[in-house]
Amino acid sequence: MLIKFIEFIGAVIEKPLLGLGRIMVLLGAALKGTVRPPFEIRNIINQMLQIGVNSLPVVLVTAVFTGMVLALQSYTGFKRFGAEGLVGSVVALSMTRELGPVLTALIVTGRAGAAMAAELGTMRVTEQIDALETLATNPVKYLVVPRFLSGMIMLPALTAVTDIIGILGGYFVTVTLLGSSSKTYLRATWDYLELQDLYSGLIKACFFGMAFALISCYKGFYTKGGAEGVGRATTGAVVYSSMTILISDYFLSVWLFK
Amino acid sequence: MIELRDIHKSFNDHEVLRGVNLNVRKGESLVVIGGSGSGKSVLLKHIIGLLKPDSGTVIVDSSDLSGLDEDGLNDIRKKFGMLFQSAALFDSMTVWENVGFGLKRHTHMTDMEIKETAIEKLRMVGLVGIEDEMPSSLSGGMRKRVGLARAIAMKPEILLYDEPTTGLDPIMADAINDLIIKMREELDVTSVTITHDMKSAYKIADTIAMLYNGVIIATGSSEEMQNSADPFVKQFVEGRAEGPIKVEGINR
């Protein structure tokens, strides 16, 4: 009975543990690849464009409307007890500490993470990754490292843009639409915003960037089973990356804001 | 030049290779035949180090592949050219960038020189004026030829062909066979081909080896294989469904 139970537990945890182990091996290879030449400069720039510049329009739209709705909701709520002057602080703190990094990461995962998994997955099932190896090219270095580095660099950059645009969106609603004083909004923003709020949000974004790129590359890199496998890899990349971002966000917040 | 000693390989408890022994002499054209799912591709991938054996040794040019680090393995791989079954062209690059991929990474040639070399290699495989096309716009036969041009771009000593004629019409298949012979004559390469196309095997092989049930069950010249008394070999080369080799999924 006990042996059967242990076998059952083993069977349940075997696959996730195996996956975790392989992600860690891929992380090790990616980290090694980032410091060992030759550096794939062209691929890195290309991926930074893909992840950063091409995600910009969707990130901008998300940021401005998030800032706007945040201002609208807090204004309505705060007005009940006469604290509408604090809307600027709520928008600024929420954007920099929480919404900026998390929403940007989720949006970029849906866009660039899915694309990474689909592209690498297709390359795997059509033997293009094997072909790279036969041409004496390390596929982790050539494919994974540029995506990993670009995720790590571009997500904080996009988050900084989200923070600024979100705060401006909040300003637009509070001042222009709801008629609050511009001076009050800006003072509430600057008086309560600390440097730590900004950089801890960017540290989170950096971690989220590494996590979504690594998970998406892992899912694509180890795709099996033709077109269906590519579909599974793409879905898996978005689901696991999003879960990792949301769960790790809590623990990062505990660590960064203790 | 290539030696495989007692290679065993399993995937998920299914033993695909059960002690393969194989020798390929320098300059020889060896063809490995065997049914679908017999492990031919797995065997080929061991030769170039894409797969590592569970046990056994792969020796290429006196180097044991298992003892090599990544740089050592890459040095050995530069001696190889491989044509994949699906051609495996990089679909984000143009035809000439595909052909010149190895040159770009491992030589100091300029893009102009690489493109010129790529055009020359494409001409060798009978393709003219397609260097700026994307692989997605090419037919199956053309893709295989581009794959072959890419495989020979680095002047390899060994060429590996994974089912070179599969999926092609008979005329294109024969044209690929002629190209394989031409490559051998012009480039003086050692080649290993895996196929189940017997017509192709007879045409390009010095030696044919048959893989069945995870081991090499027979080796010989084209004539020896054609006249083999071994019932397994006889059934396969004659292409009969009846015989000791059971067709998967069909009960008789």
The largest sheet of chain A is: none
Mean pLDDT of chain A: 91
- Total beta strand runs of chain B: 10
- Which series of helices and strands of chain A comes N to C? HHHHHHHHH
The assigned CATH architecture of chain B is 3-Layer(aba) Sandwich
User: What number is the mean pLDDT of chain B?
Assistant: 87
Oligomer: heterodimer
How many structural domains of chain A?
1
In angstroms, what separates the terminal alpha carbons of chain A? 45 Å
- Taking all Cα atoms into account, the compactness measure Rg of chain A is 22 Å
Please report the two chains with the greatest interface, counting residues with C-beta closer than 8 angstroms to the partner's C-beta: A-B, 12 and 26 residues
Radius of gyration of chain B: 18 Å
Assign a percent range to the helix content of chain A: over 70%
Structural summary, described in words:
Chain A is mainly α and 258 residues long. In chain A, 87% of the residues lie in helices and 0% in strands. Chain A has one domain (40-256). Chain A has helices at residues 2-35, 41-53, 56-79, 87-125, 128-134, 139-177, 182-192, 195-221, 226-256. In chain A, helix 1 (2-35) packs across helix 6, helix 2 (41-53) runs parallel beside helix 6 (139-177) and helix 6 packs across helix 8. The longest helix of chain A has 39 residues, at 87-125. The termini of chain A are far apart. The mean pLDDT of chain A is 91. In chain B, helix 7 links the parallel strand 7 (158-162) and strand 8 (190-195). Chain B is of the alpha/beta class. Chain B has helices spanning 40-47, 70-77, 95-99, 101-106, 111-124, 140-152, 170-187, 198-204, 222-226, 231-238; strands at residues 2-11, 14-24, 29-33, 55-60, 63-64, 80-83, 158-162, 190-195, 207-212, 215-220. Chain B has a single domain, classed as Rossmann fold (3-Layer(aba) Sandwich), CATH 3.40.50.300. Chain A binds chain B through residues 123, 126-128, 130-131, 133-138, and chain B through 45, 48-50, 70, 74-75, 77-78, 80-82, 84-86, 88-91, 101-102, 105-106, 150, 154, 160.
